Amino acid sequence: MSVGLLAVVDDILSAALKASAKTAGVVIDDAAVTPQYVQGIAPARELPVVGRIALGSLFNKFVIIIPVALLLSAFAPGVLPWLLLIGGTYLCFEGAEKVTEWFGTHHETDAETPTTEPKLVFGAIRTDLILSTEIMLIALAGLDPDLGFWPTVGALLVIGLVMTIAVYGAVALLVKIDDIGLQMMKNPSRSTRRAGARVVRAMPTVFRVIGVVGTVAMLWVGGHLVVQNLAETFWHGPYDLLHAVEHGIEAAGPVVTWIVDTAISAVFGLALGLVVVGVVLGIGRLRGRTH
Q1: With contact defined as beta carbons under 8 Å apart, do 49 and 159 qualify?
Q2: Distance (Å, whole) CA 202 – CA 185
Q3: What pTM was computed for the model?
Q4: What are the pLDDT digits (tens) for 211-254?
């Protein structure tokens, strides 16, 4: 009995590991987006706020996303590619919007900027719901259909738990690194003080790099989701083109193939995202003229 249980656990962990690898881009984006929600609050409240957001993320995954995804996969599997298509388009839009902001485009929003801790937490959990939906749907799509119901549930729970710990553990570390640097600057040792000063000076650059990585990840993941799920819904053109390019360079090795695949997906995601950004800006201007 124990051997059989260990075999099931091993199957679940193996399936979770394989499926979670495909969610890396959204996970990076999640980790890059979340720190903004704790900027400006008292240092003593940073870790409690991150903890509350992490609990909200677990609620999103375990109570909302996984049950709904399993119900749809069981009774309306044809809906999942459309959800992934919509989610991928949204990620392309978010990524392209950030790219346009790099070049000075300001995107106005009617939403009131959160000023209280509960509003900050709610805004972060709402954003997490979108990103976590993508993580769990990508993971579900990456699982073997013959895995079985309960092993599938187990794999999704493992993925949800591990991804939440990874994202919010990284966020907690990021938001406290500058405090660690400040404490090092108070150390009697001169070399330690210098190291602490370097840490504090480096953090703005670190956050900028994380922001760029998160944006590229959104475009890559979003573009790949759209290309793949367009082929599963109504249009094979982009997928066939990508597949032809991959076939043409496969002799260069898997690393080069992956880089080219990622680059093409990111460019496609950026192009689609810019179209959506243009539509959204156009609608916003028309609404402004109307009012």
Answers
A1: no
A2: 14
A3: 0.73
A4: 787 788 778 878 988 998 899 888 888 888 888 888 888 888 88
